[in-house]
TrEMBL record:
Family listed: Belongs to the class-IV pyridoxal-phosphate-dependent aminotransferase family.
The organism of origin for this protein: Croceibacterium soli
Record carries keyword Amino-acid biosynthesis: yes
Function: Acts on leucine, isoleucine and valine.
UniProt enzyme class: transferase
Pathway note: Amino-acid biosynthesis; L-valine biosynthesis; L-valine from pyruvate: step 4/4; Amino-acid biosynthesis; L-leucine biosynthesis; L-leucine from 3-methyl-2-oxobutanoate: step 4/4; Amino-acid biosynthesis; L-isoleucine biosynthesis; L-isoleucine from 2-oxobutanoate: step 4/4
Reactions performed catalytically: L-leucine + 2-oxoglutarate = 4-methyl-2-oxopentanoate + L-glutamate; L-valine + 2-oxoglutarate = 3-methyl-2-oxobutanoate + L-glutamate; L-isoleucine + 2-oxoglutarate = (S)-3-methyl-2-oxopentanoate + L-glutamate
Presence of the UniProt keyword Transferase in the record: yes
Organism phylogeny: Bacteria, Pseudomonadati, Pseudomonadota, Alphaproteobacteria, Sphingomonadales
GO biological process, one term: L-leucine biosynthetic process
This protein's name: Branched-chain-amino-acid aminotransferase
Positions of region (Disordered): 1-26
Amino acid sequence: MSDTADRPIDFSRIPHPAPVPGASRDQAIADPGFGKVFTDHMVSIDWTEGRGWHSATLGPRQPLSLDPATAVLHYAQEIFEGMKAYKLDDGTMALFRPEQNARRFNASADRLAMPHLPEEAFVEAVRQLVLADKDWFPTVEGGSLYLRPFMFASEAFLGVRPAKQYKFLVIASPAGNYFKSGVPAVSIWVSGDYTRAAPGGTGAAKCGGNYAASLVPQANATARGHDQVVFLDAVERKWVEELGGMNLFFAFDDGSLITPPLTGTILPGITRESLLQLAREEGLQVREERYSIDQWRADAESGRLLETFACGTAAVVTPVGRVAGHDGEFTIGSGGAGQVTTRLRERLVAIQRGIAEDKHGWVMRLD
Ligand SMILES: *Cc1c(COP(=O)(O)O)cnc(C)c1O
């Protein structure tokens, strides 16, 4: 569907009549954890067939009132994004490649038969919310303001077809350093029973439904004592795809780096794409190439594979230390963070935090 707004969206601004008192807020942002604490405001924009986007508001964060027949509650027509606002070293607030999130949001909207939100409106909505809630940046080292833009079918109708009304919202949540002390390696479970995405399905869209379907395999991994689940392709049950919410990279002893290609069943991560660029600049031989579970084990055992890491906005870059499945388990390298993992993580974080030069124009300063 095409962009419906041909003029910039004006936001009505309704300040929160009773924001969280400073002392409680300060306590909340001292150790916020992840996804538990929310800021005072939210952005809301409505879409109605024939009218397009309207009623853009930056207002108090408050509960929604939904008719029980609201389409999203029945058919899961919902998409979202996950991004972070950072305080740079000099105190400036910044977003990391927000236009990429805006673009991916519309790609997800296409797959879920939802209207496009103009990219400028998406970025402006996020920007307005961060500025309104600038006092909510965590005070902990490595903290950030996690932003959750999302859109859902808000029409009250039980027929099965694309809805004629949608709501776009952005909420914000102070987030601590995902890993408090260093970057521990995670152990992952290879799901033999469940897949995440099939060809022609919704694997490349960031939609809530993908996550709903990943909860059982993730719970199985947790029950077996692992941190994360890794999914294989749905056709041959052989090719390594990704974790429930993070992409994967494999680093070899000949200086090469592999990540699975974007074939439609993998979520095109912005962290993944940024790391591909940084790795090329580091002189690594980077290939987007299928990699099988059997090869993964063989290469880990022969020592050819030195490192594996997962990446995504929330945890940035996370080493994978151990892999287990129905056929037993193997360790990667020393079982901890290797050199390539550490170097790429440090380079990306330094750019995101305004410590290293932003040669790519990835950092959008907000004030
Ligand atoms: C969001 C997401 C990622 C990571 O994407 P980033 O843009 O790097 O945060 C990877 N896999 C899945 C399934 C995701 O939903």
